[in-house]
Amino acid sequence: MKKIKAWLKFNYLIPVLLLSGPGIQPLTAQDTITLEFCYQQIQKTYPLVRQASLIEKSSELRTTNLNKNYLPQFNINGSATWQNEVTEVVIPLPANLPQLQGPVIPKDQYKLTLDVSESIYDGNVTNYQKKLEKFNLNVDKKSVDANLYLLKDQVNQFYFSILLTQQNIKLLRETKKQLESKLNEVESAVKNGAMLRMNADLIRAEIIKLEQNIYELSMDRLANIRMLSELITMSLNENTSFKTPVITIPGMNYENKRIEYEIYGIQRDRINLIKNMVTTKWNPKFWAFGQFGFGRPGYNFLSSDIAPMAMVGAKLTWNPWNWNANKNEKKIYDIQSDILKNQQETFDKNLRVTTQKNISDITKLSDLIIKDQELIDLRAGITQTASSQLTNGVITSSDYILRVNDETQARMGLEIRKIQLIKAKINYLYNTGKL
């Protein structure tokens, strides 16, 4: 009995402060909880869920800004300057001729213009940036989904701890009831002088031990219920019933459907897109521009009057040669893609190893359950015989209690393995991304 309890506490129970957080939804008519319900509840109430919509809004704004690259750009520019020297027009003439007075350029100059430019062809840069934004959005949303999927493992830990404790509480209560019935019988024999008082005291002491074990397991169960309650944002209590899931696995052919594995593929496609974007650095870029305003001087710099200014035109830039920098940049992205491929293969390899352990556990536990049932049948027969022997004074209460405990341990072992088998199947589905 002590070994069973120690195993339970080590493998399934986690210490916790029994606190209830704010914002937890009350459990109304839903007084029976299923594992699937817990999964659905996390997908609806966990704070991380809201992050997906925030990511989408942020991406929409960035895409809207990229679309504005095609719209005219307006800039108002103004300046006021003073300079110590300006251009002078000096025409030397013979002394007998009157000197010519050239235009006088003011040393203080002012300018106010509206500059307009519009991209005609940006080398396909904006188009690639919009495609890249879609990849970034997809990766970010998939990352949120992956983090939400990881929460299922936490749900599994709490849920199956609850199932184990509540099942063993049930078995201990049945054993307690059996001992109480036997205690009544022994008490009667003690009153009639057929048995010593010690026999009744031994059974009564064992009942007290069972009550302690039941209380300890009940508190452990309540701790896990409260942790699960906080995780799924649903008010649960010790009276909530938890249904044991029925899991059927049609076949165990390996297939990796994990979101993380999919993200690696998306990231590699994203790297290839960025690699193709390097080509845009070679592309020529055209845009039209115009300038409208007033200046002193205007475009006629020899005039000292404030004059209107207007100019329109088109511009071309092209850098056909950058000393193989673009070529090397593409090689860098090829290396990054290979790194992601290696990480993806490593993730898949580790997952294959893990699922082999899951498959081995499923096979092992299925076989052990058959033996557990055979053992229980034998232990039940031995306990029944011991009960008769105690009644007839052949054995003592201590011998009888040992036989009862042996049967109880066998039954608890069976229930533990049944739940372990379900959890092993759940782990297989979880690890392969099929849960």
Could you list some keywords that capture this structure?
435 residues, alpha+beta, Outer membrane efflux proteins (OEP), two-stranded parallel sheet, 8 helices, 12% strand, rod-shaped, disordered N terminus
Low-confidence stretches: 1-30
- The name of the CATH superfamily reads Outer membrane efflux proteins (OEP)
Question: Which shape, going by the Cα principal axes?
Answer: rod-shaped
Overall number of structural domains: 1
Summarize the helix and strand pattern as letters. Answer: HEHHEEHHEHEEHH
Mean pLDDT: 88
CATH topology: Outer membrane efflux proteins (OEP)
- In the CATH hierarchy, the architecture is Up-down Bundle
Major sheet characteristics: 4 strands, antiparallel
Tally of helical runs: 8
Task: Please tally the β strands and state the result.
Answer: 6
Structural class: alpha+beta
Helix proportion range:
55-70%
The largest sheet has its strands arranged as 2-3-5-6
Give the CATH level 1 class. Mainly Alpha
N/C terminus separation: 34 Å
